[in-house]
UniProtKB/TrEMBL annotation:
Active site: 252
Gene3D superfamilies: Aldehyde Dehydrogenase, Chain A, domain 1, Aldehyde Dehydrogenase, Chain A, domain 2
InterPro entries associated with the record: Ald_DH/histidinol_DH (IPR016161), Ald_DH_C (IPR016163), Ald_DH_CS_GLU (IPR029510), Ald_DH_N (IPR016162), Aldehyde_DH_dom (IPR015590), LUC3-like (IPR044086)
Stated name of the protein: Aldehyde dehydrogenase
Source taxonomy: Bacteria, Bacillati, Bacillota, Bacilli, Bacillales
Amino acid sequence: MTTQASPEAITVEALINGQNVKSLSQSAKENPTHPTEIVGYFPDTTKEQAVEAIEVAAVAFKTWKKTDIEERVASMRKAIEKIRAAENEIVNLLSREHGKPLYDAHGEVYVALMWMEFACSEAAAALQEQVTEHDHGKTILSYDPIGVVAAISPWNYPIALSTIKIAPALLAGNTIVLKPSPYAPLAAAKVAEIIASEFPAGVINVVHGGADVGVELTTNPKVTKIAFTGGTETAKHIIKAASDTIKDMTLELGGNDAAIFLESFDVNDERAMRRIVVSNFLTTGQICMIAKRVYVHRSIYDAFVEKYIEAANRWIRIGDPFDPNTTVGPVNNLKQKEYVLSLVEDAKQRGAKVTPLGTILDQKLFDQGYYLQPTLVTGCDAHDRIVVEEQFGPTVPILPFDDEDQVINLHNESIYGLTSSVWGSEAEAISVARQLEAGTTMINTAAVQGLDVRFPFGGFKQSGIGREYGTEGIRTYTEPHVINVPNMLDLPYIPE
């Protein structure tokens, strides 16, 4: 396949100590809508350059950690305004490199800014030193910065899942080395550069590259915390790599999030049906917290499937991300497309029914890009691959269940536990939600539609370690430090 650079093609470089650093070689990022078109180039950062970025961050930390919280917040607020001013340019680049429709790319920037603004507004209170005087003396509790943070972000929400790490890490007084995914490196790097322009040199550094760079970020003794969003298998390697130096880690990993529709759910509620369709196929199904398996009470199952197909066919329009009529774009990369196809084909071979959904707006474009028509899978077994594996693409299985205990068990037997949703009467839905093993459970909505950055986000079991967002998402970049000043210097039970 012959590729050609777009007239709008850009080149990003590594950012080390406030300077762009060239590499001897570069990689090209193709446009998933037009795979023969190159959107831009990013560097093959070397291991030596990664070491330099870490060392620079370690030096910058010595000064940055001493700055007042007011100074850190002021710098972050200036960065927020710069991102907002450049939003259209950022969204254009994100849509071309990722395949997100424009509305979706704007939505990602909106979420990123919403979190950054919340972090700025809450950082002073979250990091406030606490002094407690008591019968035994005085205790001081401070939240001290950890040091150099290695942040590794994924390709599905590259901006939001980079800033979810950058903002709290810097506000807490740390420095950071960011490595964006090679599947979506350009917009994330540009946003990181915008933020870096408001901070001292070395506080934010950006590297790219392959496995050797990733290994350096996860093993270098000067890195004290790893913040990673991505696949569970990759996380297992990161945990092993970081074990020799016992690094602090925040890992937000995979999810096979279930949506449970109780007997009390109204299948004729068109707005609710639209919400579940969006929860399945927003960002072409490539969101960690999207609803990936749907369980429906058997008494409403047939009517639900019928109404679901109607709602999906109304909302899903597959086309060019720059076409305002498009709601679903291409899959981000060929590897992911082939994986999703393998799951659908496996379901077919096992006797499941696969129903195509939505309208293809431009068949020629569809055929040349990394497109998949969204599909609904029915008649599958609860333990088929398409049910138990995280599809991360535009397909969803819908299965019937007979009672609450059964569906709760089906939900909880998964190795994942990121988010979930329960649909039906509020009291009944909350009762079921309390029994689910998940970091977040939403009632009568799901996925990004129910996200609230004011509260912690993360998962049970193999969906991750730690929490992001909320006050916890700020303090996770600190170490609680207790200073005790006792007034009883001799304990009564210790002999003279």
